[in-house]
């Protein structure tokens, strides 16, 4: 459907910072940018409003970012959900329900994420980091958790774009990815859950420090 295409394209433009927090967008402007009619764009903006990425403003919408307190809550929920998906993925691995090729893909993405972060390719690192965590959620085979995480990841990504900077502890972040990957590959469910939760909460602590320096 055209509205789905419009939603996907507008969402990408918001997530990559083309339309940053505070940017105002009207149906007419969005339709012109996408070279589409206003009807599917209108539906797409309604969907983005439901997603929490924009809010109505006059005849259009404004891209929104979470306030610091709300961002803390988002990370708390994310840590709980990613703890769950890591535990489920490790359990499925222990039961032999994950293909070896899927674990190879996860390891490759972890390596690519570490390299992009170390090289200062921050925009690429953000995309790869999200892919790493999404792959774990997919391996968990819990659709509801994945959908909830997608929304939270979107809101966090938009809300932290302005503080995007080289992480103060890139080796620590990459090391946690490796520990999480090893726990999942080894089928150690409780360990995977613990590492995933700690990793998300550490990420929030790092973004706090980057926000304070910005």
From TrEMBL:
CDD domains: WHTH_GntR (cd07377). The lineage of its organism: Bacteria, Bacillati, Actinomycetota, Actinomycetes, Streptosporangiales. Keywords: DNA-binding, Transcription, Transcription regulation. Gene3D superfamilies: GntR ligand-binding domain-like, Winged helix-like DNA-binding domain superfamily/Winged helix DNA-binding domain. This is GntR family transcriptional regulator. InterPro entries: GntR_C, TF_FadR/GntR_C, Tscrpt_reg_HTH_GntR, WH-like_DNA-bd_sf, WH_DNA-bd_sf. Residues 1-66 form the HTH gntR-type domain. It comes from Nonomuraea purpurea.
């Amino acid at each position: 459907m055209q509205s789905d295409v419009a939603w996907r394209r507008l969402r990408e433009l918001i997530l990559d910072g083309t339309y940053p927090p505070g940017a105002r967008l009207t149906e007419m402007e969005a339709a012109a940018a996408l070279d589409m009619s206003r009807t599917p764009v209108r539906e797409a903006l309604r969907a983005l409003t439901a997603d929490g990425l924009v809010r109505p403003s006059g005849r259009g919408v404004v891209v929104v970012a979470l306030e610091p307190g709300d961002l803390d809550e988002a990370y708390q929920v994310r840590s709980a959900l990613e703890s769950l998906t890591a535990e489920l993925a490790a359990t499925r691995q222990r039961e032999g329900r994950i293909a070896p090729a899927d674990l190879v893909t996860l390891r490759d993405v972890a390596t690519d994420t570490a390299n992009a972060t170390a090289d200062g390719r921050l925009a690429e690192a953000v995309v790869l980091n999200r892919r790493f965590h999404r792959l774990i959620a997919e391996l968990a085979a819990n659709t509801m958790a994945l959908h909830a995480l997608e929304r939270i990841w979107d809101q966090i990504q938009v809300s932290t774009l302005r503080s995007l900077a080289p992480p103060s502890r890139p080796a620590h972040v990459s090391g946690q990815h490796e520990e999480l990957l090893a726990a999942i590959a080894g089928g150690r469910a409780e360990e995977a859950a613990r590492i995933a939760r700690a990793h998300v909460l550490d990420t929030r602590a790092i973004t706090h420090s980057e926000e304070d320096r910005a």
